[in-house]
Amino acid sequence: MNKIDVIDADAHVIETEDTWSYLEPAEKKYFPILTENNNESQQGWTINGILAPALIRRFKDQEIKKMSAVAGRNMITPQAAREMKDIKLRLKHMNELGIDKQVIFPTMWLQSLTSDPDAEAALSRSYNSWLRDICSVSNGRLRWACIPSTLLIDEAVIQIRQAKKDGAVAVFMRAFEGNRIMTDPYFYPIYQEAQNLNIPVCVHIGNGNRANCDLFRESPITIGAKGFAVTRVPAVIGCMWLLLSEIPKNFPQLRWGFIESASQWMPWVYNEVARRIESVGGTVSEDLFGDSNIYATCQNDDDLSWVLKYSGSKSLIIGTDYGHTDPSTQIDAISIFRNREDLDQYNKNNILSNNPKRLYGI
């Protein structure tokens, strides 16, 4: 088999105090302070005196080994690698996993950090600058998604433009951003700039609406069910909104990634969209996702033979969720995927290399 460039389309960094070292002196008041508490609704990040609840992922290596054993999935990563304090160690681990490149997404930003526009702008600028410098010493193997300050749309456009110059390969967004959904025309300047710069918008699982997060966080359901409702469901809804909106027509060259949501939902969304379009006399393309430049990460427990009938061969990618310990996480996902017997080499090469190359422009 010819050597292909294997791309981990969803990896993470665990932010540390170093992440905020790029804050200007007048912005130091926004420095996030980790607030831990046995009560889940009272733990998170305190920014300028206001707590932003979040799921804390500050685990020690030994804790992750135990979690992996219980889950029956490899989630083990060295702390210095997942915090990207030791880039050589991270690259060495990638070599062991058979990964040539990783695309890095944030951890803290999976939920809303602040409703203060100035604080969000300062924190996103610092994060983007920090990741730029870290990835610059990886010889092109660590690529990254920039975070735009969506509360200040003009500032967001400026940040995306700068991030693209600095090497970013995607724009990170959530399906719910504050009190708006991703198809709100308010975000059109971001989409226009992304299209102009030939950089994709990647809707990672997460939730930027504080009230929606609080609803499920404070409900009497298990922690696993809370995570599904708070983070995964919005991404799936977001894709359906996108397909039923005018956005693919308004921005026909813009590429979209739906990251860490698995792919088993794609046949369901395809059929739901088709019914709604056909009910008003419209027709639906057989390559609905491909025609809209939509890509989605799959998992090894997805029934991909079935999913591919709806997704098409050029819309699926795969990630390890490196650095996290979620239901999505499978550090050896690439090697397991290579050994699947239900897919031919053509589809494997597309998912491992060709499709993520096209999505991220790398």
Query: Which superfamily, in CATH terms, is the homologous superfamily?
Result: Metal-dependent hydrolases
Please identify the structural class as seen in this structure: alpha/beta
CATH architectural name: Alpha-Beta Barrel
Oligomer: single chain
% residues in beta strands: 5-15%
Question: How much helicity do the residues have?
Answer: 40-55%
Principal-axes shape call: globular
The count of domains is 1
Helices and strands, with pairings:
Elements: E1 7-12, E2 33-35, E3 44-47, E4 50-53, H1 61-71, H2 79-82, H3 87-97, E5 101-105, H4 117-135, E6 142-146, H5 153-165, E7 170-173, E8 176-177, E9 180-181, H6 188-197, E10 201-204, H7 210-217, H8 223-243, H9 247-250, E11 256-259, H10 266-278, H11 288-291, E12 294-298, H12 304-311, E13 316-318, H13 333-338, H14 345-360
Parallel strand pairs: 1-5, 5-6, 6-7, 7-10, 10-11, 11-12, 12-13
Antiparallel strand pairs: 2-3, 3-4, 8-9
Helix pairs in contact: 4-5, 5-6, 7-8, 8-10
Notes on the protein architecture:
- This protein is an alpha/beta fold.
- The protein has a single domain, classed as Metal-dependent hydrolases (TIM Barrel).
- 41% of the residues lie in helices and 14% in strands.
- An 8-stranded parallel β-sheet has the order 1-5-6-7-10-11-12-13, with helices on both faces. It has a 3-stranded antiparallel β-sheet with strand order 2-3-4, with no helix packed on it.
- Helix 12 (304-311) links the parallel strand 12 (294-298) and strand 13 (316-318).
- Helix 5 (153-165) runs parallel beside helix 6 (188-197).
- The longest helix is centred in the middle third of the chain and has 21 residues, at 223-243.
